[in-house]
Amino acid sequence: MFQWQVRVYYEDTDSGGVVYYANYLRFMERARTEWMRALGFEQDQLIREDGILFAVRSANIEFLRPARFNDLLSVSLDIVQRGRASLTFQQQVARCEDEQTPLCSGRIKIACLEAATFRPHPIPDYILKEIADVS
Fold it and tell me: What are φ and ψ of residue 132, in 5° steps?
């Protein structure tokens, strides 16, 4: 499991003082980007050097409890399914002081695509190897 922390800023909240629902998706996206970075992969470099990119294919999100301004959140991810050109993640957002109580939970499927055509592309073996080494 990979975890990444994010602080809730005023700009992340709605008029009710809680995190605006779409921002949970942003937090999850950032966690996946930081996970890739921790594995040694920069997404702009993958586009430039390998001609591939990763894009969200589907997202199923459940909003369970509100996060509020200035909360320190932990965003986790686990790979729950691997396909030839896709990965499915289970992600959770929780307050750092209570990581066992999720605020938001999501199942996100990403696809590996050819950057030039946006057609599916097999996930390169060197990426799959790094994923397997940490799973």
Answer: -65, -35
Please tell me which residue in 14, 44, 98, 125 is annotated as part of the active site.
Answer: 14
Q: How far apart are CA 34 and CA 93, in angstroms?
A: 15
Give the 3-state secondary structure of residue 33: helix
> Structural domain of residue 20, as residue ranges?
2-134
Q: Which residues contact 43 (CB under 8 A, 6 or more apart)?
A: 33, 36, 53, 54
Query: Is residue 14 among the annotated active site residues?
Result: yes
Kindly report the CATH number assigned to the domain that includes residue 80.
3.10.129.10
pLDDT digit string (tens) for 10-59? Answer: 999 999 999 999 999 999 999 999 999 999 999 999 999 999 999 999 99
CA distance 103 to 16: 16
109-126: pLDDT as tens digits: 999 999 999 999 999 999
DSSP 8-state class, residue 84: S
Number of domains in the chain: 1
